[in-house]
Amino acid sequence: MAYVATRGGERAIEQAERLYRAALGPITPERVAGIRDGMPLLIDRVMGEASLYAPDLAALALAQTGGDLYEAVMLLRAWRTTQPRLAIAQPIQTGEGLTHRRVSAAFKDIPGGQILGPTLDYSHRMLATAVLSGATVTPRPVEPAARPAPASPPPLADWQRAQGLLAPLNAPEIAPDAIPDVTREPLLFPASRAHTLQSLARADTGGMLALGYSAMRGYGQAHPTVNELRLTEAPLRVTHPCGTIFSAGRIRVGQAEVVNAKGAQLKLGFCASFGWNEVKTIAGATLDLNSPNAAPKSPTNPEFFLYHTEPVEASGFCIHFKLPHYVTFQSALDNLRGAARQKAEPGVAPELEPAE
Amino acid sequence: MTLAALTRKRADHSYGFLDASAKRELRRAMVKAVAVPGCQIPYASREVPMARGWGTGGLQVTLTLVNPRSCVKVIDQGADDSVNAASIRRFVTRVSGAAGTCDTTAATLIQSRHRIPEEVLRADQMLVLQVPNPEPLRPVEPDMSRARQMHADADYARLWLILYEQVVRAGRIMQGAGYPALVNGRHVMTPSPIPRWDLPKLHMAEHLTILSAGREKRLYAVPPHTTVEPLVFDDIPFRVEDHAVLTCGRSGLRGYFMNELPQADGGVMHEVSDSELGIKAIRAAEGSGPAPAPTWYRAGEFRRA
């Protein structure tokens, strides 16, 4: 009677949840603040996948779920979906915003220069075990450069277009209201570019890495070269009901462009997301780059990667297999036994008899 | 008249959790689905405070249809008291103020995973089925764009082909639950993973059934008095599970869909899958409750009322 244990109704559910919450202990404003300030990149990742830019709420979601990323994203999305949509912000242009980091692997130097910014790329990954014996690791102070980097270097793609290396931009001008919203409309295939980029922006980081990596390793058509990777604080400009455009603050945005240099012209893949998440945007841009003419059931086909990197859907479906399936399983067993009987006595119509 | 009298206090969530725009979208999708029986209608599918794949599609339909006068029953695998059913019922009643019930005959709105109750549903009842994979063509065409084209062309040849291959390989059709069925002579649907036992209950039924897949963002409907015909060959009739002669070890009921419970001594016990029907039968036998309402099956035979 295996499933009797998972029955028992409301009281058992209540106690199971209490058990989980007891292990986490009390959630205090201090704990939430500690998560928010101490783990900014985790906050960025949750905000990106939840498609809600709210560091305090993201920290709260992480505190409430004990750091289970998929649970935290689900919590935040369920909250955001009921909130009213007050305004539609103006698009953020690549060349604007306060640029903290901007690198290109395509050229040694680019107009506006390479800006390394904050990164662990060249660090030695050694665990600071001394902290566990009581020491405090205090970061060494940053020494300002003699000459400040430009705050908003121009997009490298502009220079490439002027050189004829990239096809000219032919994106039609779309009114903000006419841009579809993937959170309020179903994703249909073939997906529009707006839907593709929106879905990639809130896709699962790990899932995008797995599929993007498969393309990088040879299951795609193109080798990505990072054309430009940018981490910025971008202005959020919205239109006031009286018509004036004002800045409602800044958000951290990460974006990546990758190019393929095989044909007559460069081909460009793009991905952007809330927060600074370089792995996600490079993997996403690689998927985007590989998607035109991808084989129908390949990982770089938009239908394949957009469905399978949706974190709330994928994780939810995966854990639903914990729910009892005895009705469907019973139906399958019935077929199995019937087929076995038929095989044992071919030609004899299976009788109605109780399963043993 | 003051301004305060015209306003409402701000609440964290709308009535029934979903906001008005989400409900409006769902209502429009449901109207379309009723108008074109069995046709999958896309909808945005909002995130709800439950994991995807746990009945979020059914939940969104239920939250849209529920009102304070509703009486809600939730079934998971035939049982009202399994963890997910209890959790969904608790959530729906909490955000809607509707009453909850386990009694099939008392319910006006029934959300179910994998079972249609054994007691016959009436015209004033609505059944909402949670669907994991709404696409009957998924096994033969995983590409959604092509599958939609095949539905448009009523091109179900490859579906017939897999059924035929099953007959050749196993000697019988091996489709378990979720048996593909032609609705209103036009669209083939997968009737959610209900056992074959439950499929005849949809054919020319009195009640409205809405099938909704939250993760896959599609819903479809079987309106009342609509034909639902399982795909079968003329010489190999449709067969429900061989449960007609099984007896429930708890209630003594016979001729219903059963759960098989392996016993420690190597044997097997059966219990009726519709747990509330079993409870009703036990209570009626003890003289402490009414007898179950008429059921679709009698003595293991499907009979139209």
Automatic annotation (TrEMBL), chain A:
What Pfam families does its record include?
PhnI
Which terms under GO biological process does the entry name? organic phosphonate metabolic process
Can you say what this protein is called?
Answer: Phosphonate metabolism protein PhnI
From TrEMBL, chain B:
Under catalytic activity, the entry for this protein gives: alpha-D-ribose 1-methylphosphonate 5-phosphate + AH2 + S-adenosyl-L-methionine = alpha-D-ribose 1,2-cyclic phosphate 5-phosphate + methane + 5'-deoxyadenosine + L-methionine + A + H(+)
Alphabetical UniProt keywords: 4Fe-4S, Iron, Iron-sulfur, Lyase, Metal-binding, S-adenosyl-L-methionine
EC number, UniProt record = 4.7.1.1
Does the UniProt entry include the keyword Transmembrane helix? no
Q: Which domain of life is it from?
A: Bacteria
| One annotated GO biological process | organic phosphonate catabolic process
Task: Please give one Gene Ontology molecular function term for this protein.
Answer: metal ion binding
Q: Which family does it belong to?
A: Belongs to the PhnJ family.
- Record's function text: Catalyzes the breakage of the C-P bond in alpha-D-ribose 1-methylphosphonate 5-phosphate (PRPn) forming alpha-D-ribose.
What's this protein's name? Alpha-D-ribose 1-methylphosphonate 5-phosphate C-P lyase
Q: Which organism is it from?
A: Paracoccus suum
